Amino acid sequence: MTEHNKRLAALREGIDEIDKELVSLLARRAKLTTQVGQIKAETGMPVYVPDREKALIASRREQAKRAGVSPDLTEDLLRRIMRDSYHTQNNRYRCINPDINQVVIIGGAGALGKVFVGLFEKSGYTVDVVERDDWGKTSTTSLFARADLVIVAVPINLTEQVITSLTFLPGTCVLADITSVKSAPLKAMLKVHSGPVVGLHPMFGPDAPGMIKQVVVVCEGRSPQAYQWLVEQMKTWGANIHFSSAEEHDEAMAFIQVMRHFNTFVYGAHLQGEDPDLDSLTVFSSPIYRLELAMVGRLFAQSPQLYADIIFNNPANFALLRRFHQRFGEALSLLENGDKTAFISEFNKIGSWFGDYARKCLVDSKQLLLKADDDEMLRKS
Amino acid sequence: MTEHNKRLAALREGIDEIDKELVSLLARRAKLTTQVGQIKAETGMPVYVPDREKALIASRREQAKRAGVSPDLTEDLLRRIMRDSYHTQNNRYRCINPDINQVVIIGGAGALGKVFVGLFEKSGYTVDVVERDDWGKTSTTSLFARADLVIVAVPINLTEQVITSLTFLPGTCVLADITSVKSAPLKAMLKVHSGPVVGLHPMFGPDAPGMIKQVVVVCEGRSPQAYQWLVEQMKTWGANIHFSSAEEHDEAMAFIQVMRHFNTFVYGAHLQGEDPDLDSLTVFSSPIYRLELAMVGRLFAQSPQLYADIIFNNPANFALLRRFHQRFGEALSLLENGDKTAFISEFNKIGSWFGDYARKCLVDSKQLLLKADDDEMLRKS
Lengths: 381, 381
Prior knowledge:
The structure is a homodimer. By secondary structure, chain A is α/β, with parallel strands linked by helices. Helix content of chain A is about 65%, strand content about 10%. The first copy, chain A, has 16 helices and 7 strands. The first copy, chain A, has helices at about 1-45, 50-65, 70-90, 110-120, 140-145, 155-165, 185-190, 225-235, 245-275, 280-285, 285-300, 305-310, 315-335, 340-355, 355-375, 375-380; strands spanning about 105, 125-130, 150, 175, 195-200, 215-220, 240-245. The first copy, chain A, has a 7-stranded mixed beta sheet, sandwiched between helices. In chain A, helix 8 links the parallel strand 6 and strand 7 (about 240-245). In chain A, helix 1 crosses helix 3 and helix 2 packs antiparallel against helix 3 (about 70-90). At the A-B interface, helix 1, helix 2, helix 3, helix 9 and helix 10 of A face helix 1, helix 2, helix 3, helix 9 and helix 10 of B.
C-alpha cells in the first residue's frame, strides 16, 4: 500500500507539473491575443472571425485525434479559452465614424446602458450619460443640441414616456432605443423625431461581458443610410446583426420572453404554494433539473417591476397565455381520464410537428447535458 | 495594411504553436491519469477524490492569479479536463466483493441496464443479461438459481410485472431495481422475495458515460448488511449515494420529473397549436432560451411510451398538476385584470419564500449562462 501511495504521489506531482505548464501556456497565449486585439482595433478588423475560429479548431481536432486525445475535449477547451480572450483582450475597437462628435445615452448608468457606454468609449467616441436628475438642466439641453446619436436605455415602463419628451433633437441626430419590445417605441420615436430612427434589441443580459457573438435585432425606422455606421460599429464589437420588422420581433418575443417569464413565475408560485423542502428537492435532482430550478429561483432575486413591465406590456400576449392554460387543462384531462392512448397519439403529433428539429435537439443536447454535469454549482447538494 | 496582415499572420502562428502545445500537454496528462486509474483499480481507492480535486484547483487558481490569467478560466479548463480523464481513464474498478459469483441484470440490453453491465464487468464480476426472449428457458432458470444479485432494469411499465414473477430466487440473493419510482417496486420486491431487497434510482440518463459524481438514491428494503458491498461498489464507481425512504423519493420525483415532463409536453403542444416558425424563433433567442427550446424539442424525439409511463404512473401526482393549472389561471387573471400591483406583491411573496436561494441562484447562474454562450449549438441560428 505504501508502494502504491508513493507511486500515486509521484504521478500526482507529474500531473501538477503539467497543469502548471497549462497556466503558463494561457499566460503566453493571452499576450499574443492582446496584440491581435490591438491590430484589430487599429485596422477595424472584426474581433470575431468565424472562419479563423473554425480553421483553428479543425486543425487542433485533427492533431488531437492523431495524439489519442479527445477532439471534443480539445474543442471545448479552445472555445473556453477563446471566449476569455475575446472578452479580456479587447480594450479598444476601431471608430467606424469619426465624424460623430457626441453620443448621448439616456439611462446610461443602468446595467445594459453601461455596456453601450463602455463600447462607445473603447471605440473613441465622446459619450455622455443622461439620468433622471439631469433632465431639464441647461447643460443637458446643450448636450442634446449637439448630439449625433441619442440612445434611449431606460427601463421598459419609462421608454415611451422618455421618447415622447425628445421633441428637441437636431434633425440629423439618430434616435435609437434598446428596449426588449419594438413596435410601440419605434412608433413613438418616428412620431416625436423627424430625423433618422432605429429600434435595437440587444438579445443579451447585462451579465454578458460584451457584444461578441451576441444577437442584436435591428428594426429599421427612417433613413437607414444615416445609421449604417452604427450597425457597422456593432459588427466591429462582434455583434451578430439580425434585421427584422418590429411586429415580427414582438411576436417572437411573446413566445420567448413573455411565455417563459410567466411560466417561471407560476412555477415559483406553485412551489411556494406546495412548500416542499428546497434542499431535499435539489438532493434528488440531476444537474439539468437543478439548472431549471436555478432559473426559477433567479427570477425572484430580480426586480418585480421589470418582470411586471415585460409581462404586462402587451395585452395581446394574454390570449397566448390563455391558450397555453387551456392546452394544459386539456392534457391534464387525458391524465385524469387515464387515457394513455390519446396522450401517446398527441405526443406523436407534436413530434411530427417538430420534425427533424426534435432529433437534432436530442443529439446536440447530449454534450450540453454533460457540460451541466461539470458544473460545480449544479453538483452541490 | 500588408504590414498589419504580416504581423497578424505571425501572431496567429504563435497562437497555433501554443495550441499545439496544449494538445501535447493533454496527451501527456492522459498517460499519467491512466496510471493513476490503474493504481486506484488495484487498490480499490475511490476514483473521485473531492479533496484532491479541490486542492489541485486551488493551487492552479493561485498560480493563475499571479500570472495574470483568469482563475475562473483556469478552473473551468481543469474541470473539463478532469471530467474527460474520469471517464476515459477508468477501464477497471476494484471488485469489492469477490464472493459474488453471478450478477444477473434483467433488461441489461436496455440503455441504463448496459451502463450497469459495463461497470460490473470492469470490476471483474460475472454478469449475465436476461431479456424477454430468455424468459422460461432452462439456461435462464439455472442462471437465476445461482444468482447472488438480480437487478431489474426493464422499462417502468413492466417493472412490477417482472418483479412479481421472480418467485424462484435463492434466499441469499440480493434483489434490486433501478426504476425512477420507488414505492411500488420496493413493495413488490419485498412481497415476492424473502431475501435481501434494495431499491435504487440512478439519477442520470443513459448518455452519462459512467457513474462518476452521479447521484444514486438507495431505498433500504431488507437486510442492508447483505447488499452493503453493492453500495460500496457503486462508491468505487464514483457514485454519490443518497439514502432515502421510497415515499420521500417519490414525492420529490413528482415535482422534479412529473411536473417537468408534463410541462414540457404541454409547451410542445402549445407550440404545435400556435405553429410559429421554429427557425425564426431561434433567431430571436439568446442561448439560454435556445437551451430551453432544445429541452422541449428533445422530449419529442424520445419514446412516447416511456414518458406516458412516467407521467401516468402515479395518479396522486395529477392533483399536483391540477393545482399548478389553477395557479396558472389565477396569475393569468391578474394579467387580464391589469392588476400589476397584485402581481408585484405575489412576486415579492414568492421571493421571500425562496429566500437566500434566489440570490444564490442569480449569482451562480451567471457563470452558467456564460457557458451556454460558448456553446456552438446554442449559437447557431
